[in-house]
Structures are given as C-alpha cells and as structure tokens.
Design goal:
Layout: E1 13-15, H1 24-33, E2 39-41, H2 48-60, E3 68-71, H3 74-79, E4 84-86, H4 89-98, H5 112-125, E5 133-138, H6 141-147, E6 153-156, H7 174-181, E7 208-212, H8 220-225, E8 230-233, E9 240-242, E10 274-276, H9 278-295, E11 299-303, H10 307-315, E12 320-323, H11 330-346, E13 350-354, H12 357-363, E14 367-370, H13 377-384, E15 389-394, H14 397-404, E16 410-413, H15 430-444, E17 450-453, H16 461-466, E18 471-474, H17 476-479, H18 484-497
Parallel strand pairs: 1-2, 1-8, 2-3, 3-4, 4-5, 5-6, 6-7, 7-8, 11-12, 11-18, 12-13, 13-14, 14-15, 15-16, 16-17, 17-18
Antiparallel strand pairs: 9-10
Helix pairs in contact: 1-2, 1-9, 10-11, 10-18, 11-12, 12-13
C-alpha cells in the first residue's frame, strides 16, 4: 500500500457494542449525522445473520456506508459497500497477499470523497475493484510498528482500563505514548520499518495510530495530548434502555446485556430485550467530541477581529481562533464574527467567541470562552446546546475545581506573565504556578484540557508545555508578528515538539 486513504478525524471513531440491539441502525445513522468520521461495526457476540440484517437496515436507511468499517468479514463489507475492513494481523496479511494489485485511489491523486463514491459505484456494479480502508488492532508498540506500514490506521489499546470489557486493564502508558508520538505529523510522516524496538519512538508512518481502551469524556484529552491521531470509543458512547420485565443488568456492563438483535424474533422473552437509548447515546458522543476538539486547541489565536490577521494565522496552520472584541457593539461583533467564521470553515478550523454565548449563537460559532464574571457555563450550555465547546478562564486550582463540576470543556489558565492585551489582570502564575496547578489537577483526577495564556513568546513555549498544558493561547505574539503565517508555523512546531503528560 503506497498512500493511505485519509479521512477527517476531528471527532472520535465510534465502535459498536458486541451484541445487536433494537434501534441500533437508527442510532448509528444519528452518529453519522452528528459527524462521526468512521463507525466500526464489531459484533463478536452476534450471529452473522443479525450483523447482515443490521447492515441491510443501514443501507435501506440511506446511511453513508463508506464511513462504516466492518470487523473480520471482508466479503460482507464488500457486499454492502462498506468503506473499511478491520482485520487482525494474520488476516490482514492474507488479504494483502490475495490482493497484491490493490492500491488506494488516493495514490493516484483522487480525493477522499471521490474514492468513497468510486468504491460505492464499483461495489454496486460488482466489479472486482473494491479498495477499502484497511485497519488493524495492536496491543503493543512492536505490533503497531509491524502493522502501520500495512494499513491506513492501527487501533492501539488499552490506553485506560476498559469501560466495556471488565478486567481489561490499561497497558499503554500515556506519558510514554507522548514521547513516542509527539514528533509525528501527517505532513512529515514517513514509513517506519516492519519491526522497530519498543524503546524507540514510532517516529512516523503513512498510517495513523488511534487510541483505544477506556476512553471517556473525562480522559479523552489525555489521548489527544499524547499526540494520538484519533480516539476510538466503545463503552462511553452507548447507553441502552431496558425494555424487559426481569432484573435489569448492571449498566456498567451494558454491552453484555442479553439482546435478541435489531428485530426480536417471535417468542423472545421480554426480559431479554434492550434498546439503544438514542438521546443519551447522541449526547454521550457530542460530549466526547467537544472534549476531543477542545484538547486540540494547542495553538489558539486571540483575535481582535482583524480578518487579515486571522487568515494569515490559518494559512500558517493555526486551527483555533477566539474572537475577543472588547468595547465593540454587538452588531459589529456579529458581523465581524461571521466574516471570520467563513474563513475558519474554509480552513477546517474552529471559532470560539469571547464572553457572550448569545453572540456566539448569533454568529454560528463553535463555542464560547467565558470569564469568571460571565455567564455560568451550565447556563451557556442551555443557550448553545450539546455540541458547543465551552471554555472558562481560571487563575487558581480552586477556580479549576469549580469549573470541573460544570459542563465546561476546557480551561484557559493564566496569566503566564504580565501582558498589555488584557485589562484587570489576575495574579501572575509563571512556570512554577503552572507546574503547581497542573500537579494538583493530576492528583485530583481533573483532566480538562488547559491552554496557557498571557504574554507567552516563542522562547517560553518549551518551558510552558513542559508544565503539562495542552496548548497555548496567543494574542500579541501573533497579531504583531511581521509574518503572521510564518510565526504561526513556528509556534505550531514548538508546541508539537514539547508536548508533555503530567502524571500524579
């Protein structure tokens, strides 16, 4: 395989529960509509007929089958036009042996949407040109190194104690993962050898490394801080509702709930029936998505509303703009916000609006950043909905502890040093202040993403990132740079090179 078939990973990959459930096709369609880039159909506890029935329901419902990946059954995936197959190492090598001429269409320069369209057409026409995404599971760095050159992405697990598999305990150290992965970027990725010693970094691959195992909204930021290319989630996504009359199973082990499938056969006892709770499942996924996106705010530009500066930042690789236009009438903020939002959409970037959730809603922004005297985050959540990212300013651990009890998704912690771009400055934290607060967060189990802010320069980035923050927020260092795009690129590289995971 020459070039991987890339797909957007701005949101987590969802993996199904091992059994089939009533209402599951509807739930999977809802997750696709919510932007799930890929959903893995993994059904080890379901009969083959039930799995095929689920795929048929999805196809008949008009689901985008190219964003589905089926585990362990390439023939069934091909029959239903699925975009991917997930195979263990032996099966993956055998599939590649049987298809030596298969090359992803992206190797010839086609875009991902063109590839997906072509796959669907070819499958419907019955031509022997099915070219799926290939993925595989790995449970060690050595295994990941062997598999990465063979497929588009590898799921590496378990990062944390599993939610869906009792007794399946964490085996991948996040701090070690950070050291191995932090130098990898899609732009500089190079093929790695078929085998690589465990002590060496996985220094690059055409394939992506996806974190799996025990990932929840409370720890997904750790996976992103460790520079994994994505996160795959099982137990934290799904909520089932009990439809039977017998004793209800333990909700912590809901994936093992006895279930007859998508359409319970005649004679099935009512106490054996569970259904996917669509509303709760969708809410779970949206919270996971917000936390993953918030943890990706590794370089935030605090914009005063200058579209030219914002576009230069985006051209330099920045993907997070916070609009802060103090002492500007609401109508002016909305007009300028919509202009910058259009720029952000062009570059697949996020726009966060400072202070006012109602202005954020009027602009159509991705979220809001709230000061300590602004609207409380839970009230902002009511205004903006479950999909919006909400950040909060903090200066002490006590502030953070309160924020962690709310629906906020990240923290802007500062100031690092004195800055002229902000009025009513809180006490200066400095490097020692950041280290102290991040250690307190680790001991308390608070894993909200943290962005450092306040007078940070290029020279400060290594020491600030070494404190354990997810990223940095900049204002004057970007807006006053002679070449904003070039300065943005330098900051991006520095942040990526100095990521650190703080452990208790």
């Amino acid at each position: 395989m020459d070039t991987p078939l890339h797909f957007p990973l701005g949101k987590p990959v969802a993996i199904t529960l091992p059994r089939c459930y009533d209402g599951e096709a509807e739930a999977l369609c809802a997750l696709l509509d919510a932007g799930a880039p890929v959903i893995h159909i993994r059904k080890p506890d379901a009969p083959a007929a039930q799995v095929e029935a689920l795929l048929r329901q999805l196809r008949d419902a008009g689901a985008d089958m190219t964003r589905l990946t089926l585990h362990h059954d390439a023939a069934l995936a091909r029959r239903y036009g699925l975009g991917g197959i997930h195979l263990r190492e032996g099966a993956l090598r055998e599939w590649l042996r049987q298809h030596p001429d298969k090359r992803h269409a992206t190797a010839q320069g086609a875009s991902a949407p063109d590839v997906q369209k072509t796959q669907t057409q070819q499958t419907q026409q019955g031509n022997d040109t099915y070219t799926p995404r290939l993925s595989a599971p790995a449970h060690s760095w050595e295994e990941a190194a062997r598999l990465a050159p063979l497929c588009d992405y590898v799921t590496l697990s378990p990062l944390f104690d599993s939610v869906s598999k009792p007794g399946y305990l964490a085996g991948i150290d996040p701090a070690d993962a950070c050291r191995r992965l932090r130098r990898r970027t899609d732009e500089t990725a190079k093929p790695i050898p078929a085998a690589i010693p465990a002590e060496l970094p996985v220094s690059g691959s055409g394939s992506r490394i996806i974190a799996l195992g025990g990932i929840t909204p409370d720890n997904i930021s750790v996976a992103r801080a460790a520079a994994f290319d994505g996160a795959a989630v099982i137990g934290a996504v799904w909520t089932t509702e009990w439809l039977g009359t017998g004793p209800q199973p333990d909700p912590k082990n809901s994936d093992r709930t006895p279930s007859p499938g998508n359409r319970p056969p005649a004679g099935t006892p009512s106490h054996d029936i569970s259904r996917i709770d669509l509303t709760a499942t969708l809410s779970n996924y949206q919270r996971l998505t917000r936390r993953w996106q918030a943890a990706g705010g590794t370089l935030q530009f605090i914009s005063d509303g200058d579209p030219a500066a914002a576009e230069a930042f985006l051209q330099g690789g920045g993907r997070w703009v916070q609009l802060r236009m103090k002492d500007t009438p609401a109508e002016g903020i909305i007009a300028r916000g919509r202009e910058i939002l259009a720029l952000c959409r062009r570059y697949d970037a996020l726009l966060i609006v400072n202070d006012d959730p109602r202005l954020a809603k009027a602009i159509g922004a991705d979220g809001v950043h709230l000061g300590q005297n602004d609207t409380p985050p839970d009230e902002a959540r009511i205004i903006l909905g479950r999909q919006a990212i909400i950040g909060c300013t903090a200066n002490t651990f006590a502030h953070i502890a309160r924020i962690a009890q709310s629906s906020a998704d990240y923290i802007g912690l500062g100031p690092f040093r004195y800055t002229t771009t902000k009025k009513n400055l809180s006490p200066i934290l400095g490097e020692e202040g950041y280290r102290r607060i991040l250690r307190q967060m680790a001991r308390a189990g608070i894993r909200l993403p943290v962005a450092a802010i306040g007078g940070i320069t290029e020279e400060d980035v290594p020491q600030v990132m070494a404190c354990g923050v997810n990223g940095i927020a900049l204002s004057g260092a970007i807006s006053r740079a002679g070449e904003i795009a070039a300065a943005t690129a330098r900051f991006t590289e520095l942040v990526a090179a100095h990521r650190t995971i703080v452990t208790p």
